Each structure stands twice: as structure tokens, then as C-alpha cells.
């Protein structure tokens, strides 16, 4: 039996990528389901803008904002946002958020794209393609040596 090591390595890499994409599909679906269950929607007001440096040296752009839950409780939260979003907002600006009424600390600004079923489906297809390609590369990397006479 002849083994193609490049086919073996390529197949394992493709299978690894396929598995990673399938995990991303699952997390995207879970995230989408979680967001759909957030029934509360309200207006929040930005109270503070600031930057901080992460341990790896990257600058994080942060917003503090507050909102009132359906029960009338004031909730103060912080969120890390992209630099573009951070530049677009000013203190006292308003933004719409969705939150979980049973736990208002679980919230998400509506401007965030979040996950969609289309994205989850795309990731599922890509994961399946990589798994199929990697599996075929792995299968065909083990060839039977042909026995015969040399001429």
C-alpha cells in the first residue's frame, strides 16, 4: 500500500477546517436563537465613552449606557464596540437595544448585526464541503500498489 503524505495532510487540514465551520454553524444558530428570545426592546442612553488597552496591547473602544427595564429598574452596562461605532456615538446619544426581560443584563444593541439563519446555513454548507473534500483526500491518499510485470 502506498501512502500519499501530502494527501493525508491536506485531508486532515480540510477535515479540521470543516469541523471548525460546523462548530461556527452551531454557535451562530445558538446566538440567533438566543437573540430571538429577547422580547424586551427599549432605548438606552450613552453615559460614557472611553478606550482601554487590552493585555495584548490592542485598544478597545468602550461605551457605557443605561436603560430602564420593563419593570422600571435602571440597568447600567458597558459594551466594547468597533472603532467606527465608537466614533459615530456621542455621550447622551440614544440607541435601541433588545434585552431579556427575565435577566436585563443580557442585552444587545440593535445596530449589531448578530447572526442570521442564512449565515448559519452558509456555514453549514461550507463545513460539509470541507468535510467531504477532506474525507475524499484522506480516502484517496491510501492507494493500493498495482502489481504487475515491468516491461
Brief rundown of the structure:
41% of the residues lie in helices and 33% in strands.
Helical content band: 40-55%
Strand content: 25-35%
Provide a count of the helices.
3
**Helix and strand succession?**
EHEEEHEEHE
Quick check: average pLDDT? 84
Report the principal-axis shape.
Answer: elongated
Q: Please state the oligomeric state of the protein chains shown.
A: single chain
User: Would you identify the regions where 5 or more consecutive residues have pLDDT less than 50?
Assistant: none
Tally of DSSP β-strands: 7
Distance between the termini: 21 Å
Largest sheet: 5 strands, antiparallel
Q: What Rg, in angstroms, do the CA atoms define?
A: 25 Å
How is the largest sheet built, in terms of strand order? Answer: 4-3-2-5-6
Q: Helices and strands: which structural class?
A: alpha+beta
Task: Spell out the key features of this protein.
151 residues; five-stranded antiparallel β-sheet; alpha+beta; 7 strands
Describe it for me?
The structure is a single chain. The protein is α+β, with helices and mostly antiparallel strands and 151 residues long. It is built from three helices and seven strands, in the order E-H-E-E-E-H-E-E-H-E. The longest helix is centred in the first third of the chain and has 32 residues, at 5-36. The two termini are 21 Å apart.
Task: Provide the fold topology.
Layout (H helix, E strand, L loop, with lengths): L1 E2 L1 H32 L3 E14 L5 E10 L5 E8 L1 H6 L5 E7 L2 E7 L7 H24 L1 E2 L8
Antiparallel strand pairs: 1-7, 2-3, 2-5, 3-4, 5-6
Helix pairs in contact: 1-3
